[in-house]
Design brief:
The protein is α/β, with parallel strands linked by helices. It contains 22 helices and 19 strands. The radius of gyration is 26 Å and the shape is globular. It starts with a strand and ends in a 17-residue tail after the last helix. The chain binds phosphoenolpyruvate and magnesium ion (MG).
Length: 605
Amino acid sequence: MGTRMAGKRTFHFDGLGVSDGIAIGPAYVIDTKNSQLESYHLAADEVESEILRFRQAIEMAKEEVAAIGRQVAEKIDPQQAKIFDAHLAMLDDPYLIDPAISRIREEQRNAESIFWSVTKGLGDQMAALGDDYFAERNHDLYDVARRVIKFLGELSPTAGQSIPRDGCIVIASDLGPAETAQFSRNHAIGFCTDEGGPTSHTAILARALAIPAIVGLEFVTHYIRTGDLVIMDGSAGKLILNPSKEQLEFYEAKRQDHMRLREDLLKLRELPAITTDGVRIAMMANLEFPDELDALENHGAEGIGLFRTEFLYLNGRGSASEAEHYESYVAVLQRMGNLPVVMRTMDIGGDKVHDSNFTPFQEANPFLGLRAIRLCLKRPELFRSQLRSMLAAASGMEHVRIMLPMISSIDEVRAARVILHECLDDQRAAGKEVPPNIHLGIMVEVPSVAILADTFAREVDFFSIGTNDLVQYTLAVDRINKSVAHLYRPTHPAVLRLIKMVADAGKAHGIPVSVCGEMASRPSLAVLLIGLGLRTLSMGPSSISAVKRAIRSVNMADLEELAQSVLLLSSAEEVEELLAERAGYWFSRPTEPPETVTSNQANSA
Ligand code: PEP
Ligand code: MG
């Protein structure tokens, strides 16, 4: 901490750098913990329309609550659905609604901030009673309030434009993937959060969008105000508030160097990822949103190794129509032409989409809960609708590649295959063309599947190793919890041995294996994966060139020897030491691969 510059004190904060790059600009602070509400004054002639907007939001919330209640009654248990009756009653409660309306009128302030303040007032009164019953009701009250505020957001005349100007660095207690995407569209140039871990979806998204990001800054939202000048270094995890003139000059030069380096790397776009002894590696991209397709093309991706489809549910409604699914898949498949596209079925749960449509009850451990394939098998109508859209979008194509996330036992694959076949039959019965080659693959991201990889390899068409979750589940380390981020180590020998087992099983059974977790996007880890037997890597588009450059500087004999050595080590530290030593040497050598490719060809799903 320290210096004084033009009367403003300079502060330094250290966090976890999760997306490279330098950003310099004004901060835009949002308090996501306290519902990220804007508070603003209304002109006298705006008051009545604000009250109307509030009433509409209440009606929309009521419709949603009633629909969820009906679903829960039908699909789960009518007894459990009663809670939604209580929520409906709250939405009609004059003690909650009337004071909000009076205060909007008296104070001439927007509905979100008034309604939140009324809710807090009531909530504090209930909490003061110190009674279990009221503690529960308090929880319901906030649930109801958040729902109304969500609809107010949709009805807001400025919805989607919450960043006041271009070039801001967003500072938040935490950011969900939807907010990250929305802010990036509104031209945020950096993200800094109090919370979060290295493979949280916000971090992944920031990397995909090539926007610098730092997580785990603890209380930074308490110190920084909107409009404060900040510098962030996403590689080092450093944030500087009120920088000195010297710091501004230093980081501006560093920012320009970084941009130049990025442009230089882009020159590799047309070159293959090939080792110095001619082994070709397929470089695929992970896609989070269809509007990343330009980036994917600019970075020379050879296909999509992981198309995450959760974005379809990040629209605030928590649901997506079959037509919306279909349109997105068609857009991606058409743009990619003959290049392979692996479409992953919805991986809802964990740190992704939270919506009472899917998990009506708060889960204590969402990463171990009703996530991904588990939700799909519990709610087959949702799964069917997604599969039908995928098949329809791929109609007329040679291949369709569908991947199931979070598989933990073979029964899930079998059950999913039955549903897929029913959908295929329906398509045929309706006279629709279906692709002749249906490839059904799985994410290998739960240790049970890696251990039984040889069994799974007999029943699926391809594997894609999801190291983000494989690390989390193998080491029992929550991937988004910054307190245990130091224990989250993809280099742990236990993880590396599991990866090797999967690569070997794929090879023995002749099915393609790729890696689509973040591990593939880090050059020194990517070459280690190649040493372990992988020939297809999938990563955020902006990482492709740096990984390609690393691949073009190594040879297979060295990589295989490295892989053998790390598998015998006993800790992540030892592995990282060895990797740093080898990678430091290899990546600095001026070597060029040959133009021809050996028979050890890349395989892709
Ligand atoms: C993974 O777990 O490595 C993966 C690619 O899936 P996601 O990050 O979407 O959970
Ligand atoms: Mg995963």
